[in-house]
Amino acid sequence: MSPRRKFAEGQPPLFTDAVPSRQRRWLLPVTAAFTAVLAIAALAVCILVLLTHENQRRATIKEAAVLGYVRSFMTEFTSPDPFHANDYTDRVLAQATGEFAQQYRSNENQILIGVARSEPTTGAVLDAGIARWNDDGSADVLVVTKFTSKSTDGKLVAERASRWVLTATQEGDRWKVSNLTPVI
């Protein structure tokens, strides 16, 4: 027998290439689409978290600015100095706007006389908090203050606490008082 083999016509060949079957590779497009949707969803969540964080940060900064201003104003307002009564009324009037400014201007002489006749008083803010934000951007702030005054001989010390509702309005980059009401 020889190593060569003879083939007859019509006989199937011994070694043939198998016809590759066309299998669809559906796993790769589905995985790519799922990954793209997942990446878009993650990006959307990140953007929403960033926007929420930024809004909260701005609100916190605005609230801190209002409370800082109100504490400063109320400390100055509750600490009249009879030796500098004119300066006191000018400083308060410079920080007033709206209804409070009109009331203060109309009663400025009586306030000036009252401050000049009083004893030196030291005021302190015990606590302050925003009661609500109004639609016009102003804030109603509830403030608790304490007045401390001494008699002329320095022996008697009088302390009195009071509550106020103050409406702070932003004019430009400054806050001003548009309403100041004592709470009974």
UniProtKB/TrEMBL annotation:
Alphabetical keyword list: Membrane, Plasmid, Transmembrane, Transmembrane helix
Keyword Transmembrane: yes
Presence of the UniProt keyword Membrane in the record: yes
Domain of life: Bacteria
GO cellular component: membrane
Protein location: Membrane
Regions crossing the membrane: 26-51
Main location: membrane
PANTHER family: OUTER MEMBRANE PROTEIN RV1973
Name the record gives this protein: Mammalian cell entry protein
